[in-house]
Automatic annotation (TrEMBL):
Organism: Lithohypha guttulata
Stated name of the protein: 1,4-alpha-glucan-branching enzyme
Record GO terms (molecular function): 1,4-alpha-glucan branching enzyme activity
Function of the molecule: Glycogen-branching enzyme participates in the glycogen biosynthetic process along with glycogenin and glycogen synthase. Generates alpha-1,6-glucosidic branches from alpha-1,4-linked glucose chains, to increase solubility of the glycogen polymer.
Region (Disordered): 1-21
Pfam families according to UniProt: Alpha-amylase, Alpha-amylase_C, CBM_48
Phylogenetic classification of the source organism: Eukaryota, Fungi, Dikarya, Ascomycota, Pezizomycotina
Enzymatic reactions: Transfers a segment of a (1->4)-alpha-D-glucan chain to a primary hydroxy group in a similar glucan chain
Biased composition (Polar residues): 1-12
Entry-linked InterPro entries: A-amylase/branching_C, Branching_enzy, GH, GH13_cat_dom, Glyco_hydro_13_N, Glyco_hydro_b, Ig-like_fold, Ig_E-set
Length: 699
């Protein structure tokens, strides 16, 4: 057996040697409430074991099974020969057609094997491939009843769209000469201890009214992201999607990098350049559903309703208007696992943010379901066990083949064990997104005044996460930027964002409040909310307005489908203050590493004073959310004695503040217990200001 395959299998059983339950119930030691659900946990784990055993027995292991792209789709020999294989079990006949044979439907028939895979070998002539690079083609099939259908090959790696001709994509054979292919120059960076994630969409990454390119992102955005101090880029909308306004979440070609932004080599250069700058790159992968397109998608690919998806209502997402995968199908499993492997191998991505995980975990897909936190919701009849087991195996495969890979789950349900390793009975993700945090902020800003903010509620929401499962916190992501909603800065500044963000205009109370709270909300989220932090591009500087892609409803305008990076670069605009604060926040985390330190100890939640105090990573954090009251000689508890200095102050003038605390002030501790801490110190904490103090010896 291949060593990698043996490792894959052994990882599931080696738990016993380390004192872990060999039946996948070790997770119960982390969460005793799961004891009641021991049997469902064992069943789930046993199913994952069986799937992996079957793959080991019949496919030679996960390592080989996940290289389906080396056999299916178009593959190329060194001598120029081309082999094309396609799984289409419902089709009775298949033919390869394209520009290479003048779209002749009969000249290149394919042969079908017992597993429903069609095959065609195209020998080269004198080393010249039978099909030229960048040639359009399709597969033409005859299905039961005699109907002929034509489709884009399911494993195609390049598709293009010419809206002047048709919205339907064309499949293109991507096979450049070896000396023309991009060659990676830089190794993947080490896995970050702290994840500071910059969520980005290539197409909107420009202030210009257009679709930006991979080349422009490489040239303009990577230096900006590096300067800001982020160490992870999470790229959205890379997998090819027919409808630009879908934000990349209606995938039609799973192995093709979007051609809107450039060529596959352009994307490789982008990732390689990020790696050269020490930045990890994650792909926002969509395995939760697929576009319902038939002519240029997977839907009814071989004429049947159930090839890649569940048939009938179970195979359709009623809100997303898309198709839902049948994760229990052997060939679907091959397709999806190979898809993950392809993006890791071909493009050197460093991991994935899995979109729509809630939909994958439950047969109701989260539709009309308000999760109460009751454990019966996570192990009852509403759970899609096949979807859970697919995610278990996907994470296990990635962990074994790429030990430094990072996986993030977008799940709103709070399923226990989502970020616990498989050997303990978990699903195996590294991180989950803290999706309740941005909802809290929007609710606060919409429904209450500053004086009504509950400090205890803020602290609870930011620390309310499952023990032993890492979380990525964020104040807002792309979801909050979409049309119909408003960013935090828009909620805070409202109409004055258009009239008073210039330093030449009055610093009004509205703008003062907006800038102050924008900084404080981000800092408290970063410090208290999780083991990782995420920001959607542009929000670091308080990007105005919302995000809306060109569509019929807005006359196909690009006005809101862009990020105005000219704003923070303009020295006469106050956006620069928020941009510089965000940078200082990231760089301070890089120095002190609070994201990979244990959860904070909260020593004070004063509802009257609106003051929040906690310690994390040896730092003392003091937040005064009060809209009008400043406090002198405010006593705060601190565990470690010594002399403290300010390392970050939201009130510094370079961040648009009033500089009310001398940054050279030394804060001495007194050996007297306060708020369950061994010592206390006293500070001046102005209204709507946050201070971060560190021991003088660590500066």
């Amino acid at each position: 057996m291949d060593p990698l395959n043996q490792q894959s299998q052994n990882s599931m059983y080696a738990a016993a040697a380390g004192g872990q339950a060999p039946d996948g119930t070790g997770i119960i030691d982390m969460d005793p409430y799961l004891e009641e659900f021991r049997e469902p946990l064992k069943h789930r784990f046993a199913k994952a074991q069986k799937w992996i055993k079957d793959i080991d027995q019949y496919e030679g292991g996960l390592e080989k099974f996940s290289r389906g792209y080396e056999k299916l789709g178009f593959t190329f020999s060194d001598n120029g020969d081309i082999m094309y294989r396609e799984w289409a079990p419902n089709a009775e006949q298949a033919f390869l057609i394209g520009e290479f044979n003048n779209w002749n439907r009969d000249s290149h028939p394919m042969t079908k094997d017992q597993f429903g895979v069609f095959e065609l070998h195209l020998p080269a002539r004198d080393g010249v491939p039978a099909i030229s690079h960048n040639t359009k083609l399709k597969i033409s099939m005859v299905i039961p009843g005699g109907e002929r259908i034509e489709r884009i090959p399911a494993w195609i790696t390049r598709v293009t769209q010419d809206l002047n001709v048709s919205p339907v994509y064309d499949a293109v054979l991507w096979n450049p000469l070896k000396h023309e292919r991009y060659v990676f120059k830089h190794p993947r960076p080490p896995r970050p201890q702290s994840l500071r994630v910059y969520e980005a969409h290539v197409g909107i990454s420009s202030p210009e009214l257009k679709v930006a390119s991979y080349k422009e992102f490489t040239r303009n955005m990577i230096p900006r992201i590096k300067h800001l101090g982020y160490n992870v880029i999470q790229l959205m909308a890379i997998m090819e999607h027919a409808y630009y306004a879908s934000f990349g979440y209606q995938i039609n070609s799973f192995f093709a990098a979007s051609s809107r932004y450039g060529t596959p080599d352009d994307l490789k250069e982008l990732i390689d350049t990020a790696h050269a700058n020490g930045i990890t790159v994650l792909l926002d992968v969509v395995h939760s559903h697929a576009s319902k397109n038939t002519l240029d998608g997977l839907n009814q690919f071989d004429g049947s309703d159930h090839q890649y998806f569940h048939e009938g209502a179970r195979g359709r997402h009623e809100l997303w208007d898309s198709r839902l995968f049948n994760y229990g199908s052997h060939e679907v499993l091959r397709f999806l696992l190979s898809n993950l492997r392809f993006w890791m191998e071909e493009y050197h991505f460093d991991g994935f943010r899995f979109d729509g995980v809630t939909s994958m975990l439950y047969t109701h897909h989260g539709i009309g379901t308000g999760f109460s936190g009751g454990y019966h919701e996570y192990f009852g009849p509403g759970v899609d066990e096949d979807g859970v087991v697919y995610l278990m195996i996907a994470n296990e495969m990635l962990r074994n083949l790429y030990p430094d890979a990072t996986t993030i789950a977008e799940d709103v349900s709070g399923m226990p064990g989502l970020c616990v390793k498989l050997s303990l009975g978990g699903v195996g993700f590294d991180y989950r997104l803290a999706m309740a945090i941005p909802d809290m902020y929007i609710k606060m800003l919409k429904e209450s005044t500053d004086s009504e903010w509950e400090i205890g509620h803020i602290a609870h929401e930011l620390t309310n996460r499952r023990h032993g499962e890492k979380t990525i916190a964020y104040a807002e992501s792309h979801d909050q930027a979409l049309v119909g909603d408003k960013s935090i800065m828009m909620w805070l500044a409202d109409a004055q964002i258009y009239t008073h963000m210039s330093t030449l205009t009055e610093f009004t109370p509205v703008i003062e409040r907006a800038i102050s709270l924008h900084k404080m909300i981000r800092l408290v989220t970063h410090a208290l909310g999780g083991e990782g932090y995420l920001n959607f591009e542009g929000n670091e500087f308080g990007h105005p307005e919302w995000l809306d892609f060109p569509r019929a409803g807005n006359d196909n305008s690009f006005w809101y489908a862009r990020r105005q990076f000219n704003l923070p670069d303009d020295k006469l605009l106050r956006y620069k203050f928020l941009n510089e604060f965000d940078r200082a926040m990231q760089l301070t985390e890089e120095k002190y590493g609070w994201l990979h330190h244990p959860q904070a100890y909260v020593s004070l939640k004063n509802e009257t004073d609106k003051v929040l105090v906690f310690e994390r990573a040896g730092l003392l954090w003091i937040f005064n959310f009060h809209p009008t009251k400043s406090f002198t000689d405010y006593r705060v508890g601190v565990e470690e004695a010594g002399t403290y200095r300010i390392v970050l102050d939201t009130d510094w003038p370079e961040f648009g503040g009033f500089n009310r605390n001398d940054r050279n002030t030394r804060f001495f501790t007194t050996d007297l217990a306060w708020n369950n801490r061994r010592n206390f110190t006293q500070v001046y904490i102005p209204c709507r200001t946050a201070l971060v103090l560190a021991l003088e010896s660590t500066l």
